[in-house]
Amino acid sequence: MHEVAAYLRDLPMWAAALLFIAENALILLAGVGLGTAVLRLSRAVRLMPDTGRAELLQLWLAAGAVVLNTAVTLAGWKLWTLGMIELDLDTTWWIAADLLVLLLIMDFASYVGHALAHLPLLYPLGHRLHHRFVDARPITLFALHPGEVIAFGALWLLVLAAGSFSVWALAGYTVVNLVFGVFGHLGVEPLPVRWRRSRFFAIVATPTMHTMHHVNPARNLGFYTTLWDRLFRTLDDDYDRRRTGLAASPRPASVTSRLS
């Protein structure tokens, strides 16, 4: 890993940019592939209507997200080469601890940012664009306002600059973030009911949680866990009943009323 790091550190800017745009394009393709596979699962319970093909605007926004995420990755690489971001390259037991810390920090920071994005003054400026798309497509995760992509990227770089983290924990976080993002934007619940009834999924967010957010945008603002929604009382009152299969799924008719 140290040899790879030395190679990356000495890359010219143009080569790093090409490498990172390929990386972010692969992440998008992996997300779409994962989402498509989940939608084909026979046990997946549909929560939202299947709206067919993605809109052209979604495709353009997803392409823009790849470009902007490449810029964020390039900025992070530059900060790393300058010593402003420190990465632990060794394989130790601290990888798991670093990953847990990153998830909790980003979960809380994203919750706060998401809550701010839904304020009446700020919502029309950016986040409303994401909410115009009904959750039923793998590409929806990437259909974001450019300002939101930059804001999340800046937050990520700020967290990395605040401490030293394992490079393997960063890779693990990228995978976890992609999986949660894709699962939350498919409009289906692929997890068996017996899993969702466990104490683990009382804390860890299920796909149902974010689907319900798109039905009722004032609720379920968290991403990876329910911790902050429970603490700040923004969890949908009916979430636990729906999570455990004791209540019906969100009605598709209620979705369209939120898209204006």
UniProtKB/TrEMBL annotation:
It comes from the Bacteria. InterPro entries: Fatty_acid_hydroxylase, Sterol_Desaturase_Related. Signal peptide: none annotated. One of its GO terms (molecular function) is oxidoreductase activity. It is found in: Membrane. The keyword Oxidoreductase applies. Keywords: Membrane, Oxidoreductase, Transmembrane, Transmembrane helix. Its EC number is 1.-.-.-. The chain crosses the membrane at residues 12-39, 59-80, 92-117, 138-159, 165-188. Residues 100-234 form the Fatty acid hydroxylase domain. It is an enzyme of class 1 (oxidoreductase). PANTHER family: STEROL DESATURASE. This is Sterol desaturase family protein. It comes from Catellatospora aurea.
